[in-house]
Design goal:
Layout: E1 7-12, H1 22-35, E2 40-45, H2 55-58, E3 64-66, H3 72-81, H4 88-91, E4 96-99, E5 111-115, H5 120-123, H6 135-145, E6 148-151, H7 154-164, E7 171-173, H8 190-196, E8 203-206, H9 215-223, E9 231-234, E10 245-249, H10 253-261, E11 265-268, H11 277-284, E12 289-292, H12 295-301, E13 306-308, H13 313-325, H14 330-341, H15 345-360
Parallel strand pairs: 1-2, 1-4, 2-3, 4-5, 5-6, 6-7, 8-9, 8-11, 9-10, 11-12, 12-13
Length: about 375
């Protein structure tokens, strides 16, 4: 295939269905950037029998989308044991198949690109739902099947090399981006503030709860300092109002941006992260960030966040107090936004297309 020809890329769009997670936001933003390029022709497939038509409402105009006539569960069982059935059987021929969500579909002729966002599934397999019990084995097989493995940070790339045995020459780091809307986000208006029962000043955690997110540590640290304002937890789950901890439940992107922009500080107390996009999004809003001193967050935050050891409730509580009590200088404010602005979805797409060309054997 000549380098001047458009790359035909088949993208796993399953993460775009349902409530949008971090992987879903990555897949959506990447798809939008790829659709705007003249050197790539993308098609999107959802590994599901039902609900796939919703793809058409969340993808750029005229992007081809379809589901599969076989259940995802059955396909995973087959792909765990063999390289059949190949994805072309359902979706037609292409140059590259991109597994955006840990699983690489086998192909007859297409190059394979797999994105591994983190290794939480290996670190705590006991916390996986029963339906994903075979995920560690499936991801290992997918990593071996892919021609190129993408990771959001160098920290994850190093762990993928160590834990999954992927050679360095097959790894590519494709950092995520910050949507432009974050740089113009404004604090919540009276309507949203009233609907979510937001106080005038609050600390904020954004994301799904889970063993590696350290929410128990955050709750303990917050409870230890009565002078701290209420803690708002924005993410999937039951919403509750009142008291010193407010849970908003799942919020659409436009509301999340406002809630972040209005926070006194964003706190991410994770034991481990693959990237930590909320850190950059908060910095784009000029909101101070307190997060744990773990490799991926250290890499992404640069010098623009206060880092604390994971599990140290006293250090976390003190960092939250200081974040609220220390007025930032104009230089600090400018540095935060400049750092966040260095991460764009266009750069993510450029690095990903380079991975596609490597996988397809195009130089």
């Amino acid at each position: 295939m000549a380098a001047s020809q458009r790359l035909r890329v088949l993208l796993d769009g399953t993460p775009l269905l349902g409530e949008r997670t971090g992987v879903g936001r990555y897949t959506s933003s990447l798809a939008e950037e790829l659709a705007s390029r003249v050197d790539v022709d993308i098609r999107v497939v959802a590994f599901t029998l039902r609900g796939w038509r919703a793809l058409r409402s969340v993808l750029p105009h005229e992007v081809w989308a379809r589901g599969l006539p076989v259940s995802a569960r059955l396909l995973r069982r087959c792909w765990l044991r063999s390289s059949a059935p190949p994805i072309e059987l359902f979706a037609g021929f292409c140059d590259v198949v991109h597994g955006t969500n840990f699983v690489q579909a086998p192909a007859l002729r297409a190059g394979g690109v797999l994105t591994v966002h983190d290794l939480a599934f290996l670190d705590a397999p006991e916390h996986l739902p029963i339906s994903d019990a075979a995920l560690p084995q499936l991801v290992r097989r997918s990593a071996g099947r892919a021609d190129v493995v993408c990771t959001p940070t160098r920290a994850v790339a190093e762990r993928v090399a160590e834990r999954l045995g992927v050679p360095e020459d097959r790894l590519r780091v494709t950092p995520l981006g910050v949507d432009a809307a974050w740089f113009t986000a404004r604090p919540p208006g009276d309507g949203l503030r009233g609907r979510l029962a937001l106080p005038s000043t609050y600390l904020l955690f954004v994301g799904a709860d889970g063993p590696r997110k350290g929410l128990d540590v955050l709750l303990a640290a917050h409870a230890s300092r009565t002078e701290l304002p209420p803690l708002v937890i924005a993410g999937p789950g039951v919403s509750t109002v009142g008291g010193r901890v407010i849970r908003t439940g799942y919020l659409p992107d436009v509301d999340v941006r406002s809630v972040v922009a209005g926070a006194g500080a964003l706190v991410l107390p994770s034991r481990d992260e693959g990237f930590g996009l909320p850190v950059l999004e908060a910095l784009a809003c000029n909101v101070p960030v307190v997060c744990t001193d773990v490799p991926a967050l250290r890499e992404v935050a640069g010098e623009q966040a206060t880092l604390v050891p994971f599990g140290d409730t006293e250090a976390l509580a003190e960092a939250m107090v200081l974040a609220l009590d220390t007025p930032p200088s104009s230089e600090v404010l400018a540095a935060r936004r400049a750092h966040a602005a260095g991460f764009t979805w266009r750069r993510c797409a450029e690095a990903t297309v380079a991975a596609y060309r490597d996988a397809a054997g195009i130089r």
